[in-house]
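Researcher: Final request for today, and then I'll write up notes for the group meeting. The sequence and the SMILES for zinc ion follow.
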Amino acid sequence: MSKFTFIASVLTSILLQCLEGTFAIAHPRSASAPPPLETNVGEVLYITVSVKGQNRVVVGEFRDRTIPFFKIGETGQYGALIGIDLSDEPAQDEVRVQIQEGSITRLVQRYRVKVRRTQFGIQELTLPQEKVDLDPETLKRVEEEQQQMLENLSSVRGERVWRGPFVMPVEGKVAGTFGLKRLINGQPRNPHSGEDIYAPEGTAVVASNHGLVRLTGDFFFSGKSIVIDHGLGVFTMYFHLSDIFVKEGESVSKGQTIGLVGSTGRVTGPHLHWGARLNGARVNPLSLIKLPLHTLVTGE
Ligand SMILES: [Zn+2]
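Model: Predicted protein-zinc ion complex:
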């Protein structure tokens, strides 16, 4: 395994960029004039909608994604989190909010959403080629693990388990590495789809919100890993752990210690790689922290 482990003395050039995000909350007054919303590639948009009637099934459509809405009070208010994938086009589009009544679907609201470009930096790594080219056996393992991860991330539970604001999973230094385009020996690789938080080996890692442990394992790239399913297509991921304290299928609470910071998998040193998915979109997990979800603590 160590043959394929990245060495610490690689030539690394990281262009960090500002990760400040913006979020828009819409409280539309009429169906005819919804305000335009703005967000950035790789971030999360929180929208709300008022719907007449009790216990409606409210669903949004944005690009090729289906966005489930959740009830946020007794007054016909529904909310949804929309993830803008880090590879999404920076363009204006529409969210169509619909009510489902049996086989009938009725459009209740449209939002124009302007997705702004995010200038992600570039990370260049120069490595001995034998550290980059995986042997067939390892390549097979990596492909199987990626498939397993994708299957777990694409199964959506219809019930919201997360409650109130998301919290930071570990105390440490945020590296600002989300979205970095990566070049290894000049060859483009997958962009960095999570955020790295540097903390000493053995630092406690907590669940960012309530959820169900969807997957645990020891993977080639991500090392000892946990995936938490927060319901309605929201997942958070915790990679490179030294220890895992939870089992698949177990319910976890926000703030519960689920593992320890480590340096397992293909890493150069101890840190937590924290990832988030929203209905398939790879988003900056820090976007979840910044969402104005405090009002959801009550009235649920
Ligand atoms: Zn990472």
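Model: Residues 192, 194, 196, 273 surround zinc ion (CB under 6 Å). The CA atoms of residues 276 and 289 lie 11 Å apart.
Researcher: Thanks, that's everything.
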